[in-house]
Amino acid sequence: MADDPPTSRAQPLMLRWRQAHATLAPFVLAPLLLTASTGMAYRVLKDWGGWERDRAHPLMTLHEGEWLKSLLGPQAETLYVVLNGVGLLWMLTTGALMVGERLRRWLAAKERKGSPGGRVG
Asked: Which of 14, 19, 36 is closest to 88 using CA atoms?
């Protein structure tokens, strides 16, 4: 209808974004956790733990996806880094869209509540 608020058309799109976010999250989470934890461990152990570069290298091998070369070939490390970056950007973007939509709805409900005769719902 012409009287429909703009959210009525946006809602199915937001639902699809939310579903895609939820579907991809488990696949993105493990590599991101591995990358973040090994990167932090490498830096902390090297700087504060007194580890030499060679001793900490296995952490960097995990961090950069170098271990995938033996399984998937010479381009695996680059693919891992690219997919990890794209996955992070995807989760940040879709997460921000969902937060923005929730904030927009909250502000609209607050505005309706404050206006005379307005209702929430």
From this structure: 36
